[in-house]
Amino acid sequence: MLGPPAQISKIMVGLLALVIVFFLFMDFNLHLRIHNYPIDRGINDNNNFSYNDVSWLGYNISPLGDVTVKAVLLDHTNYYLFAPLVTILDNLLNISEFPYITPNAISFFHVFVAIASGKCIASDSLSYRRIGVVLFEIRTFLDDLDGHVARARKHIKGERSEVGTSGYFIDGICDGLGCIALLIGAFFYLKNNPPRGGYVQLPTAIDSKDSNVIMYKGKVTLQKSALVISCFALQLLLSSLSWNRYIDLYQDMLENNSVSDEEFVKQIIVFKSPMFFIIAFFWRLVNVHNMIHLFLLAIFCDKMWEFLKFIQYIGYAILFSVICITEKHALDVRNFIFNQKYLENNTL
After folding, report:
1. Which of left, alpha, beta for 107 (phi over 0: left; psi -120 to 50: alpha)?
2. Measured distance CA(239)–CA(244) in Å, rounded
3. Neighbouring-strand partners of residue 203
4. C-alpha neighbours within 13 Å on the C-beta side of residue 334
5. Residues 6+ apart with CB under 8 A from 203
6. Contact 220/196 with Cβ under 8 angstroms?
7. Most buried of 49, 84, 148, 237, CB within 10 angstroms?
8. What are the distances in angstroms from CA 179 to CA 7, 42, 101, 235?
9. Residue range 157-213, pLDDT digits in tens
10. Which among 163, 177, 193, 174 has a CA at the least distance from the CA of 299?
């Protein structure tokens, strides 16, 4: 292993606590950023100063610089950690300036990194599985890099999805292949190391000091492992399709500049509304990227099976709840912005 299990566990718990505190701190700052400084939508937000005047990290590097719909729906790790690191790397190496390093080439490359990760995660060795986790996070970093390079070459500010372009579909296919490689690796690990099916208490002899003895049940069958992996895979697919749908939907409603001045003002109102911030926070937790981050954390802590069992059914309940809430909110937003008969007392 990469260290004594008890020591690794303590370090992981400490780091996880620090990361959670950092993410909550950044969420608080994101809320202040949205409400106290103008959002770049091409109009004057009646404010004489911008976030660039107070950003200590640098406007282009700070994740709070160009706030977009996709940015606030993005998971915490990608938004607050990987995105700034990708920008710093590009500033140092000028990757986006090299004509032979295309976004599609990066996308194809990180598929091979994911395959290597899946191979490691299938290993019986916890050390190799942890290396597999690191490799897959590198794949995720490269996934951020291909989007950054694509936007830099088109001079697009902030996180945005160019729905319908060839790069959009290639990136989606490569992401899907990477997830498949990860899940196949997890399946082969469970196949070669079937977990226990729990335990039962069996009565002992009457003259025994202990009235019961704990006996482990048989190992989990291959069919059961395949079922649990399949449930998680379908959750990832449902999360990905829904998340991308709502990014496209909210971008069309809130970042469409081909609207009247009145509708433009309504876009700003919705973007700054508490309900939209809550919806965005939900999707930061349940989008496909964050679900994979949690799965990788479970693998690193040697809790793969426990995580998969926990999320097997409750994951669907959470996803469907968030989807229903978001669908209702999106309908209300569309009526508010584009329908003059919308009742003003409805909640945004």
Report:
1. alpha
2. 8
3. 212
4. 11
5. 211, 212, 213
6. yes
7. 148
8. 30, 38, 23, 12
9. 877 877 778 888 898 899 999 999 999 999 999 999 888 764 444 455 545 555 554
10. 193
The first and second tokens of residue 224, run together, are 């059961």
3-state helix, strand, coil in the chain (%, to 5): 70, 5, 30
Find, among 50, 57, 51, 63, the residue nearest to 23 by Cα.
63
CA dist 240 and 89 (Å) reads: 27
Task: Name the CA dihedral angle for 217, 218, 223, 228, rounded to a multiple of 10 degrees.
Answer: 40
- What tokens were used for 71? 């940015």
| This prediction's pTM | 0.86
Q: How many whole angstroms separate alpha carbon 167 and alpha carbon 182?
A: 22
Q: Which residues of the chain have pLDDT under 50?
A: 1, 43-48, 198-202, 206, 213, 215, 341-345
- Whole-angstrom Cα distance, residue 160 to residue 252? 11
Which residues does residue 199 pair with via DSSP β-bridges, in sequence order? 216
- Among 143, 319, 141, which Cα is nearest to 245's? 319
Non-local (6+) Cβ contacts of 265 within 8 A are none
- Mean of pLDDT over the chain: 85
Instruction: Return the closest-CA partner of residue 189 out of 309, 305, 288, 295.
Output: 305
Q: CA 94, 96, 100, 103 torsion: positive or negative?
A: positive
Q: Classify residue 269 by burial, with Cβ atoms within 10 Å: 0-12, 13-18, 19+.
A: middle
Specify whether the CB–CB gap between 197 and 220 falls below 8 A. Answer: yes
